[in-house]
């Protein structure tokens, strides 16, 4: 009898995709992350850009802060009460390739148009694209990518 090598993919606790989908499957979390990547850090501006209700936004910001996706930094404008900015962390910045890949895919496959923003190389100004890259820097075509069990 042969060992089924697909078994680890059936166990939810071993599936990083399931864990990420549980969090990133929340449209409000994705929209808050989008705003944070655009440099929007304040509650009312995030709310205005996303049309999220105050309670929903407060709940998502609390969850994202607890998970380490955002840092909550106090600020106070003259004559106003203390408020908070929500700043990207290293953990949330590591989502950039995923989020921008999703954006690129959405433009190409759902909206069927060109993106209105792009990631570019600071030095050359060239537009960057998502890719599968080996440890030594070789770009691998998606058709040549395979999933391999490591456990």
From TrEMBL:
User: Which InterPro entries does this entry report, sorted A to Z?
Assistant: HTH_HxlR
Q: Which organism is it from?
A: Enterobacter soli
Under the heading PROSITE patterns, the entry gives: HTH_HXLR
Task: Give the molecular function GO annotations.
Answer: DNA binding
Q: What is this protein called?
A: Helix-turn-helix domain-containing protein
Domain HTH hxlR-type, which positions? Answer: 15-114
Taxon lineage: Bacteria, Pseudomonadati, Pseudomonadota, Gammaproteobacteria, Enterobacterales
Question: Per UniProt, which keywords does this protein have?
Answer: DNA-binding, Transcription, Transcription regulation
């Amino acid at each position: 009898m042969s060992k089924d090598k697909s078994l680890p993919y059936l166990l939810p606790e071993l599936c990083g995709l399931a864990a990420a989908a549980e969090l990133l499957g929340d449209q409000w979390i994705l929209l808050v992350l989008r705003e944070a990547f655009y440099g929007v850090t304040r509650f009312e501006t995030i709310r205005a850009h996303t049309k999220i209700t105050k309670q929903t936004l407060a709940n998502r910001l609390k969850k994202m802060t607890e998970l380490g996706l955002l840092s909550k930094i106090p600020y106070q404008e003259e004559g106003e009460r203390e408020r908070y900015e929500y700043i990207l962390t290293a953990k949330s910045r590591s989502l950039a390739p995923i989020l921008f890949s999703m954006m690129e895919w959405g433009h190409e496959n759902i909206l069927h148009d060109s993106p209105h923003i792009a990631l570019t190389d600071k030095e050359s100004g060239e537009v960057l694209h998502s890719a599968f890259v080996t440890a030594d820097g070789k770009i691998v075509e998606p058709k040549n990518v395979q999933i391999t069990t490591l456990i």
